[in-house]
């Protein structure tokens, strides 16, 4: 073993402490950078999760609205069928002495159908306005367009029935 003076031992020890201190500070800086990155990733993950939750809520809301529209469409189809059957019966009764009452009832039925169609049309336009800005909603827009086409067909059928009633009203009574 070499004989070292106290100053040499202290100097060597200080040198070793400085080396270890530098290595420790380097590792501490790396850990700090990793912590910062992890915090940033956690914040980004939370933002994405929040956005996904909002989109899920919007999708659920749109699905509920579409179910409401489908139910309205089914109700309208049922109402139209009932109105057509009723109108057929009433048109058959035009030759009888109750013809004016039958005509009035037929016209009232047609007016009620028109009012219902207007309400459904307003609902469709409202939903369409909310759906249109959403990206990737092409499939949903196609579905809404199909529903709108069906409702327009119902409206056209009611209009045709209204014209037939008007034509029958103008015919002279026997």
TrEMBL record:
- Any one Pfam family here would be Nsp1_C
Subcellular location, in the record's words? Nucleus, Nuclear pore complex
* Stretches assigned to the Nucleoporin NSP1-like C-terminal domain: 1-99
Chief subcellular location equals nucleus
For this protein, what is any one GO molecular function term?
A: structural constituent of nuclear pore
Sorted alphabetically, which keywords does the UniProt record give? mRNA transport, Nuclear pore complex, Nucleus, Protein transport, Translocation, Transport
| Protein transport as UniProt keyword | yes
Which GO cellular component does the record give, naming just one?
A: nuclear pore central transport channel
Superkingdom of the source species: Eukaryota
A single GO BP term for this record reads:
mRNA transport
Q: From which residue to which does any coiled coil extend?
A: none
Name the family the entry cites. Answer: Belongs to the nucleoporin NSP1/NUP62 family.
Q: What is this protein called?
A: Nsp1-like C-terminal region
- Organism for this UniProt entry: Carpediemonas membranifera
């Amino acid at each position: 073993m070499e004989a070292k003076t106290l100053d040499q031992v202290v100097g060597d020890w200080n040198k070793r402490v400085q080396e270890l201190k530098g290595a420790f500070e380097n590792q501490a800086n790396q850990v700090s950078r990793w912590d910062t990155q992890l915090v940033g990733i956690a914040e980004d993950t939370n933002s994405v999760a929040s956005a996904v939750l909002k989109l899920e809520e919007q999708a659920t809301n749109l699905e509920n609205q579409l179910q409401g529209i489908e139910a309205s469409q089914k109700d309208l189809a049922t109402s139209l069928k009932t109105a057509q059957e009723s109108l057929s019966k009433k048109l058959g009764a035009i030759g009888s002495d109750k013809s004016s009452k039958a005509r009035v009832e037929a016209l009232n039925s047609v007016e009620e159908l028109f009012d219902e169609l207007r309400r459904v049309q307003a609902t469709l336009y409202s939903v369409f306005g909310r759906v249109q800005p959403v990206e990737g909603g092409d499939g949903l827009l196609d579905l809404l367009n199909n529903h709108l086409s069906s409702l327009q067909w119902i409206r056209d059928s009611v209009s045709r029935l209204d014209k037939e009633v008007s034509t029958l009203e103008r015919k002279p009574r026997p």
